[in-house]
Design brief:
Blueprint: H1 18-37, E1 81-85, H2 86-92, H3 97-101, E2 137-141, E3 144-145, E4 159-165, H4 170-173, E5 180-186, E6 192-202, E7 209-219, E8 223-234, E9 237-238, E10 249-252, E11 255-258, E12 268-270, H5 273-277, E13 284-287, E14 300-302, E15 316-318, E16 321-333, E17 338-355, E18 359-361, E19 368-369, E20 382-383, E21 395-398, E22 405-423, E23 430-447, E24 449-451, H6 452-458, E25 462-465, E26 470-475, E27 478-479, H7 494-502, E28 504-505, E29 508-529, E30 532-551, E31 565-566, E32 574-594, E33 597-611, E34 615-629, E35 632-643, H8 647-651, E36 655-657, E37 694-696, H9 699-702, E38 709-720, E39 728-740, E40 743-745, H10 748-757, E41 767-769, E42 775-780, E43 782-784, E44 787-800, E45 808-824, E46 835-836, E47 840-842, E48 846-848, E49 851-861, E50 864-873, E51 876-878, E52 898-900, E53 903-914, E54 919-926, E55 957-965
Parallel strand pairs: 2-5, 37-42, 47-51
Antiparallel strand pairs: 1-4, 2-3, 4-5, 6-7, 6-55, 7-8, 8-16, 9-15, 10-11, 12-13, 12-21, 13-14, 16-17, 17-22, 18-21, 19-20, 22-23, 23-29, 24-28, 24-31, 25-26, 26-27, 29-30, 30-32, 32-33, 33-34, 34-35, 35-38, 36-37, 38-39, 39-44, 40-43, 41-42, 44-45, 45-46, 45-49, 47-48, 49-50, 50-53, 51-52, ...
Length: about 950
């Protein structure tokens, strides 16, 4: 945190704009480094923490860098690429690649990691470059699409380096590369055997992790082979084990209150006033604790906040995971002109999430607790008739005796890429052809649920059979066989527990995803201009993606999304699409070795895509590189970007949802018949329950024709590598992305509002009402709706000190400044309010602090090495002062803004090489100062009262790693 500074009046005359400040950051740091740098030697040392190499200098070969298909000697091009090499991966101490990449400043917004419990639990880690979301970030392995968008599924010991391209690249890589590209480059050479063991534990003595890897390889004259196995495991940490997450905290009326769900084991019951008056309450009552058996009116008290259920303590702060991987990489030179290669890896991940025991909302779940139930002491119906829509009193409870709802996942991920590459004679031209096959199977077993039909039957009419002395379903004149009456009014009674466990089910679901792809590429020089060779890269590809899912019949939803399992619903659906693509990219040198133009190059690229589901698209780019002097590079890229609907957005089946909405037809008097079908026009209508039934789905089940997202990406930057100060490098890039027709799953409230405002809206077909006018359910399909615009600045300062008697140092600072992140939910609606996210956290989009930074200081001295990583997350806020945005940080007061200060995390590492034993030992401490995350409260977030995608939730964490090489 910086101290407050009140400048003199003269200084107030100049106030740099935020973008200007971001551009000035690397220049300011250079000024700080200059005095120390002036004493450095002329040679430029390595940035690695490993001991200096003794290899002689080698002539550089042309290579391809992520963002272009053209082979070049230049490392710095028009594409802003951040590279993380093996030494940096090792020094970070991160057990998974997801943990490492998610710390980069260019990564923002919602992302999944091990701390995502509600809405996660699969063990996956996703990457959201520029905050555009993981669906708009393309993940590659050796330049080839990753089958499963989980970077944790890639074995860490397979990686040579990670290249992160932070601008739009649809013209080169096709769909999804809107926010950028993360390319994992594999190790293709390794001689010997290496074993590594890694252990970690938090300062709370929990969150224990284990990581073992074994890598072996051999390189010969004609080829090489590298193979390895990898095992990782991570223990669960309960949310109750941290002070900030053990209670469900809400910000209401300016006060932090401990509150939870109204679905509580002792019930939350809304009664007619005449009945509630007999107990002396307004309308809501709850069961007294300690009552057994059947209940009477005397067993109830007036409901209060103390009766709510603290579901947060049942959740997991860190989800358990176990991951086993195997990989095999090989290449073989058949001749001087042809080489074969094959990459194979397989990963099995076992993981799970855990949330509170299943709640029951008689109104929301569309069933009736009968007034004629033997156990009903109130003599009135509760719930909603799913056929007529008739609504009665509310009855909420929670079946704690069934145990937690647990979602146990097993994910099997396999990817195999064989190929051939070679030369065209003695020319500069090279070619590459490969086949990519990937298959992902994810199985889940889901614990703690109930058979819907048997529960509904058990809550129907029942009576005490005088002949048997047992409570029996039905009526004395019409008993129901094979039915057990359920005393839902006392879920802790032993008889009720036995009845509930008798109808408990653990549904299973399985999803398969397969990708098959063929790709052929060629690149080389076309002809020579005075400034150099004109180079061309071109290629074509065919890809087919398919998905299929199946589940227990009881858990499969019908056409309305109604399932046979309480609070769990899945679908059986399959689908596929294919895409044919062709691209070309040309590098044209315009000027070279002239005063004011040491180099001036232009790159042109275009890609044509033809999707069987979304039609055809052409995306193009133009990039310019200008070196007025050898040390200075000015660069700029303008690209068209697009994203075709992915297979899950198309083919996800119907799943239950229970959102809270405000029906625009309340007190309806006419004029909006499409939105308010069957609603009385006399002004008497008011929705029975603010929580309604909704059905989320992909576009195909909803009958909606999705089209691709379209937009443009702009990037302008400068790179300065002064020869007068070897080892120093500075860069800054201004970026901007504009995107239209964004693909999103719309909320029930949006469906209702859009149809009410426009009777011809296609959303009107998604509203389903009973004949009483009450909402039966609202479909929430995946549609094209909205526009997104974001811009900011990335900057990097790096300095590599030369060897001194105190060792060798290197320092690097990467920063990202977000100037704008605006989302318009519906540009076609003039009343739609644009949501400004820059500097804010919102549930829908995630956290976008203005500033993010990552600084690293490395040191090596003989066998010793150490590093210090500083991660900075700038100030942010929750909520908006604009009432139209409806983003208040307070549960009860509109337009409340809660400000959150900046956070800085310190991670340190030290290591020593025991050369005689071929062993290296590293130890480290993450979150050295034990910084606890900020409280954002449950009314603003889904997990643990905070933003688990941005802040550290484990606290101080110790780790130790030993590596032995044979």
């Amino acid at each position: 945190m910086h101290p407050t500074y009140d400048p003199p009046s003269a200084a107030r005359c100049f106030r740099p704009k935020p973008l200007a400040l971001a551009l000035m950051a690397p220049i300011a740091l250079m000024a700080v480094l200059m005095p120390a740098a002036a004493q450095a030697q002329d040679a430029a040392p390595s940035t690695s923490n490993a001991p200096p190499s003794t290899d002689k200098a080698k002539t550089l070969d042309s290579v391809t860098v992520t963002g272009s298909r053209i082979r070049r000697i230049d490392v710095e091009t028009a594409n802003p690429v951040v590279t993380v090499d093996r030494s940096q991966i090792a020094a970070s101490g991160k057990a998974t690649l997801g943990d490492l990449v998610q710390e980069l400043p260019s990564v923002a917004g919602n992302a999944t990691n091990a701390n995502t419990n509600n809405g996660g639990g699969t063990g996956a880690a996703t990457i959201s470059l520029r905050g555009m979301g993981d669906k708009r970030t393309l993940i590659l392995v050796n330049g080839i699409r990753l089958a499963y968008n989980d970077v944790n599924s890639i074995p860490a010991n397979i990686i040579d380096r990670v290249e992160v391209l932070s601008n739009g690249a649809s013209a080169i890589y096709g769909s999804d590369a809107i926010g950028g590209v993360v390319n994992f480059i594999l190790r293709d050479k390794f001689d010997g055997v290496q074993f590594s063991g890694d252990f970690g534990e938090s300062s709370h003595s929990d969150g224990f992790r284990r990581h073992f890897s074994l890598t072996a390889g051999h390189t010969g004259e004609r080829g090489s082979i590298v193979a390895g196995i990898d095992h990782q495991s991570l223990d669960a940490v309960s949310a109750s084990d941290r002070a900030f997450s053990r209670d469900a905290l809400n910000l209401s009326n300016g006060q932090v209150i401990v509150s939870g769900s109204s679905a509580t084991p002792v019930g939350s019951i809304t009664l007619p006033h005449a009945v509630a008056g007999q107990i002396g309450c307004g309308s809501r009552v709850s069961l007294n604790p300690g009552v057994s058996g059947t209940t009477t009116l005397n067993d109830y008290h007036c409901y209060s906040n103390a009766d709510t259920y603290n579901y947060q303590g049942d959740n997991i702060l860190q989800t358990p995971q176990e991951r086993n991987s195997f990989f095999l990489l090989g290449k073989y030179k058949f001749s001087d002109a042809v080489q074969g290669y094959a990459n194979f890896y397989y990963t099995k991940t076992e993981s799970d999430s855990q949330i509170a025991p299943v709640p029951v909302f008689a109104n929301g779940d569309n069933f009736i607790v009968s007034a004629q139930s033997y156990y009903n002491p109130f003599g009135v119906n509760f719930g909603t008739d799913r056929v007529t829509g008739d609504s009665y009193g509310d009855f909420n409870t929670r079946f704690t005796t069934l145990g937690y709802r647990r979602y146990v996942y097993k994910t099997y991920n396999m990817q195999f890429t064989p190929g051939l590459r070679g030369n065209f004679g003695d020319s500069s031209w090279q070619w590459d052809a490969n086949v990519n096959y990937g298959k992902v199977r994810q199985k889940s077993v889901n614990y703690g649920f109930l058979d819907y039909a048997q529960l509904e039957q058990g809550l129907g009419p029942s009576f005490l059979d005088a002949s048997t002395g047992k409570v029996t379903c039905g009526t004395p004149g019409s008993p129901v066989a094979n039915c057990t009456p359920i005393n839902i009014f006392n879920v802790n009674d032993p008889t009720t527990i036995a009845a509930l466990r008798n109808i408990q089910v653990n549904p299973t679901a399985t999803n398969d995803y397969i990708v098959k792809q063929f790709e052929a590429n060629a690149n080389g020089n076309l002809f020579t201009l005075p400034a150099g060779d004109v180079s061309l890269a071109t290629g074509l590809s065919y890809r087919k993606e398919s998905t299929s899912s199946w589940a227990d019949p009881l858990a499969v939803g019908d056409a309305n999304g109604l399932c046979g399992v309480v609070e769990f619903c899945t679908t059986v659906l399959s689908g596929s699409f294919n895409v044919k693509e062709a691209y070309a990219e040309a590098l044209v040198p315009l000027l070279a070795d002239l005063p004011g133009a040491q180099a001036l190059n232009v790159t042109l690229g275009s890609r044509y895509s033809d999707y069987s589901t979304a039609g055809s698209n052409t995306s193009s780019k133009v990039a310019l590189e200008w070196r007025p002097v050898q040390d200075l590079l000015l660069r700029g890229t303008v690209s068209q970007v697009f994203r075709a609907p992915n297979i899950y957005e198309l083919y996800s089946g119907i799943a239950n949802d229970a959102p809270t909405v405000n029906d625009p037809c309340n007190f309806y008097t006419g004029g909006h018949s499409a939105a308010c079908a069957n609603v009385p026009t006399d002004g008497s209508y008011q929705q029975a329950n603010p929580q309604i039934s909704a059905k989320a789905s992909g576009a195909v089940p909803a009958g909606y024709q999705l089209k691709p997202e379209q937009g443009k990406s702009f990037d302008y930057g400068v790179v300065y590598d002064p020869q007068w100060l070897p080892g120093l490098s500075l860069s800054a890039d201004v970026w901007r992305i504009n995107l239209n027709d964004t693909i999103t799953t719309i909320s029930a409230q949006t469906v209702l509002n859009q149809c009410y405002a426009n009777a011809s809206s296609p959303f009107c077909n998604f509203i389903h009402r009973f004949n009483t006018g009450n909402i039966n359910y609202v479909a929430e399909p995946t549609v094209n709706l909205g526009a997104l615009s974001t811009k900011g600045v990335d900057s990097t300062v790096a300095y590599r000190f030369d060897e001194t008697r105190f060792g060798r140092f290197n320092v690097r600072l990467d920063t990202t400044y977000v100037a704008r992140y605006d989302v318009n939910p519906d540009p076609s609606d003039p009343t739609a309010v644009t949501i400004h996210n820059a500097g804010k956290y919102t549930y829908a989009y995630g956290n976008f602090p203005r500033w993010r930074g990552l600084a690293t200081l490395g040191w090596t001295h003989g066998p010793w090495s150490a590093s210090w990583r500083i991660r900075y997350i700038g100030r942010t806020q929750v909520g908006s002062a604009d009432e139209q945005q409806q983003l208040s940080a307070d549960l009860s007061i509109p337009a409340v803004v809660r400000r959150v200060g900046a956070y800085t995390y310190h991670n340190v590492q030290a290591g020593y090489d025991f050369a005689p034993w071929h062993t290296r030992v590293d130890l480290g401490i993450d979150n050295l100062s034990d910084k606890q995350p900020p409280l954002l409260y449950q009314n603003n977030v889904t997990n643990s009262n905070t933003d688990v995608a941005t802040y550290d939730v484990m606290g101080r964490y110790y780790w130790l790693r030993a590596t032995v090489t044979f």
